[in-house]
Amino acid sequence: MQRLLNKTALIIGGSSGIGSSTVERFLAEGAKVITTGSTPESVKRTQSELGDAVSVLEFNALALDACQQLAQTVSVRFGALDILVLNAGVSDWRPLEQWDQAGYDRVFDINVKAPFFLMQALLPHLKPSASVVVTGSNAAHSGFAGGSVYGASKAALALMARTWAAELLPRGIRVNIVSPGPTQTPLFNKLGIPAEHFEAAVQNVKAGIPLGRMGEPSEIAAAITFLASSESAFATGTDLVIDGGVTRLQAA
Ligand SMILES: NC(=O)c1ccc[n+]([C@@H]2O[C@H](COP(=O)([O-])OP(=O)(O)OC[C@H]3O[C@@H](n4cnc5c(N)ncnc54)[C@H](OP(=O)(O)O)[C@@H]3O)[C@@H](O)[C@H]2O)c1
C-alpha cells in the first residue's frame, strides 16, 4: 500500500541525510515531492542524484526573503500542499564559554527563525487536511553538555510547532514533531571535529545510546512518513522521540 499516493509534499532540506532519506521514502509511498537545497551547487547535485521524479528548489534559510519566494514558487508551480516537512537544520555543540554571538545567531536563524517565517509564508498554501512534520532533536529533551544553543533552538522549534498544532485545529491541519537522536548523516562531518578525534567522538556518542548504535536516516524517515500520512490521523502536537533510548532509558 502506498500511504502517500497522489499527495503533494514539500520537504525542506532534502539534499542530505534525514531529508534525503525522507524524499526517497515519500517517493516510494507515491507522493509527488518537491525539496530544497541551500545553494545552487547543492540543488544541482541533488537534482542529478534524484532525477526528474523530484523538483529541487533553492532555499537558503539565512536569507529571510527566501521564505516568501519559496512559498510563491511552490504555489504557482505545484499548487496547494498536502504535506510539509520542515527538516533543514544545523547542529553546533560547544561549551558555554566558547559561544559567540555569530555562532548563536546562525543556529537560531536556521533552526528557529527560518522555519517560523517559512511556515507563515506557506500557511495559505496548505490544504485543509495538510500534515506538517517538524524535525526537532532529542537534544531538546535533556541537558546534554555542549548542547545549550542547539538544544534550545530545537526546544523553541518544537514549542512553536505544538502552538501551530493548536492554532491550526480549526483548519484540520495537523502539526507533529520527530525528535531524532544521534543519526548517521553528513551532519557529523560538519561539526568541526578534527579528523584524528572523529572516530573517538563517534564511539563516545554510541556509548551513550542504550541501543548501542546510531540511528539510520531511513529510521527517522519512517517516523516522518508515519506522521505525514493519515495513519497518524489522531496525532497532532505530539513529539516522537527516535533516539535509541537516550533520553528515556538508563541502561543497566
Ligand atoms: N543527524 C543527527 O544526529 C540529528 C539528530 C537530531 C536532529 N537532527 C536534525 O535533523 C535535521 C536533518 O539533519 P541531518 O542529520 O540530515 O543533517 P545534514 O545531512 O547536514 O542535512 C541538513 C539539511 O539541512 C539543509 N540546510 C543546512 N543549512 C541550511 C540553510 N542555511 N538553508 C537551508 N537549508 C539548510 C541542508 O541543505 P544543503 O545540504 O543544501 O546545505 C540539508 O538538506 C536537522 O534539522 C537536524 O538538526 C539530526
Helix/strand layout:
Layout: E1 8-12, H1 17-28, E2 32-37, H2 40-50, E3 54-58, H3 65-78, E4 81-86, H4 101-122, E5 126-135, H5 148-167, E6 174-180, H6 195-207, H7 217-228, E7 239-242
Parallel strand pairs: 1-2, 1-4, 2-3, 4-5, 5-6, 6-7
Helix pairs in contact: 1-7, 3-4, 4-5
The chain binds NADP nicotinamide-adenine-dinucleotide phosphate (NAP).
Describe this protein with a few key phrases.
binds NADP nicotinamide-adenine-dinucleotide phosphate, 252 residues, alpha/beta, seven-stranded parallel β-sheet, Rossmann fold, globular, 17% strand
Strand order of the largest sheet: 3-2-1-4-5-6-7
* Tally of strands: 7
Mean pLDDT: 96
Task: Report helical residue fraction.
Answer: 40-55%
What portion of residues belong to β-strands? 15-25%
Output the radius of gyration.
17 Å
Low-confidence stretches: none
CATH class: Alpha Beta
Question: Any ligands, ions or cofactors bound here, and which?
Answer: NADP nicotinamide-adenine-dinucleotide phosphate
First CA to last CA: what distance? Answer: 40 Å
Inertia-based shape: globular
Q: Can you tell me the number of structural domains?
A: 1
Largest sheet: 7 strands, parallel
Give me the strand/helix succession: EHEHEHEHEHEHHE
Concise account of the structure shown:
By secondary structure, the protein is α/β, with parallel strands linked by helices. The chain has helices at 17-28, 40-50, 65-78, 101-122, 148-167, 195-207, 217-228; strands spanning 8-12, 32-37, 54-58, 81-86, 126-135, 174-180, 239-242.
